[in-house]
Write a structure and sequence with these properties.
Layout (H helix, E strand, L loop, with lengths): L1 H19 L19 H15 L1 H7 L3 E5 L5 H16 L3 E5 H10 L9 H9 L3 E5 L8 H16 L4 E5 L3 H8 L1 H7 L5 E5 L4 H6 L1
Parallel strand pairs: 1-4, 1-5, 2-3, 3-4
Length: 208
C-alpha cells in the first residue's frame, strides 16, 4: 500500500509538472523514442534532438538554441516536446511550451487595469524556464509592438544563457525576417542550428 501511494504521488507530481510546462494534452505522450524514422533526414533530426537532450547541461552553460523549420505535421512539435519531457523527467529541469501569440497575449494582457500581473512579471515568467519551446513562429507577421515584446523575451533569455527551441512552418529567410537580424544572430550563437523538416506530413499520411 505504501508503494502504491508513493507511485500515485510521483504520478500526480509528474502530471502537475507537465501541466505547468504548458504542453498540450495531445502531445504529452510524445517521446524521442517514439519518433518514427523512415528517411535519412528524419534520422538526422532525431539524432540532433537526442544529442541536444542528452547534453542539455552543456546547452545551459552556453544558451545554445535551435530552430525547427518545416511543413506542418512533420514532427517538429514531437521532437521539441520529446526533448522537454526527457530533461524534465531525467534532470528535473523546468520547461515551458507556448506559441508566439500566446506569449505575446500574456504580456499584452498585463496592460489592462484589472491585471494581477505586471508586464515585467509576464516577461520574467517566459524568461525563467531552463528551456522555452516557442511554437508557431511567424504564423502571422505581428505589429512592431509585438515584435518588440518577443525581442525583450528572447534577448533576456540570450543574456541569461537560457536555451530556446523555436518551431516554424516558414523557411529560414522568412523566419529571419520575422525575428529580425538581432534575435536571429543571437539564436545562432554558441552552436545554434537550424533543422529542416522537409519530408511529407505524418498527418497527411494518416489521413490517406
Amino acid at each position: 500500500e505504501a508503494e502504491t501511494r508513493e507511485r500515485e504521488s510521483r504520478l500526480q507530481a509528474w502530471q502537475r509538472k507537465i501541466g505547468d510546462a504548458g504542453i498540450p494534452e495531445r502531445f504529452r505522450d510524445r517521446s524521442l523514442h517514439g519518433f518514427v524514422v523512415k528517411t535519412f533526414a528524419q534520422g538526422n533530426a532525431l539524432e540532433f534532438a537526442q544529442s541536444y537532450a542528452d547534453n542539455f547541461d552543456a546547452a545551459l552553460k552556453t544558451g545554445r538554441s535551435a530552430l525547427f523549420l518545416g511543413k506542418p505535421g512533420t514532427g517538429k512539435t514531437h521532437l521539441a516536446v520529446g526533448i522537454g519531457m526527457q530533461i524534465m523527467q531525467r534532470d528535473n529541469r523546468s520547461v515551458l511550451f507556448t506559441t508566439v501569440m500566446r506569449a505575446i497575449r500574456r504580456v499584452k494582457d498585463t496592460w489592462s487595469r484589472d491585471s494581477r500581473e505586471s508586464e515585467s512579471e509576464a516577461i520574467a515568467a517566459l524568461v525563467f524556464p531552463d528551456l522555452l519551446i516557442l511554437d508557431e513562429v511567424g504564423v502571422q507577421f505581428g505589429s512592431d509592438t509585438e515584435k518588440l515584446i518577443l525581442f525583450d523575451v528572447l534577448n533576456e533569455r540570450y543574456e541569461k544563457r537560457r536555451p530556446t527551441l523555436m518551431l516554424s512552418n516558414l523557411g529560414l529567410d522568412d523566419v529571419r525576417a520575422f525575428l529580425g537580424d538581432r534575435i536571429f544572430d543571437r539564436l545562432r550563437e554558441d552552436g545554434g542550428e537550424s533543422i529542416v523538416f522537409d519530408w511529407e506530413s505524418y498527418r497527411g499520411k494518416a489521413t490517406a
